[in-house]
């Protein structure tokens, strides 16, 4: 990552527009942000090079690719040592069902966000993968009944 730059109002506007539509053309982005196309392109490149923009991706409807069940799980480890943390983190990174895994402070050690086809698929993952990771003492699973809000857009 290059030097962190100080964001001005135009940079923030660029980031807001790109978060809402990552496929916008440079010409349209420039127009919406009141820039020339070359200045717009230069600013977006600078935002990427500085690490503000980390990538672009297509957002896929989970239900249409047989990942309609959203699960959160609290994981409590039996020991909080560097080797147990690393073993658990490596296993979470390898699992395609795990979308996010966060080490947290509080009553448990990790919070996992996962997507699976259905509850039987979750049970297979829980029994064959999650609880078999060395150091896992306890898990609490929360199946999502309704997604009230889900966004990838940060308030900038």
UniProtKB/TrEMBL annotation:
Residues 7-70 form the HTH asnC-type domain. One of its GO terms (biological process) is response to amino acid. Pfam families: AsnC_trans_reg (PF01037), HTH_24 (PF13412). GO terms for cellular component: cytosol. GO terms for molecular function: sequence-specific DNA binding. Keywords: Activator, DNA-binding, Transcription, Transcription regulation. This is ArsR family transcriptional regulator. It comes from Phenylobacterium kunshanense.
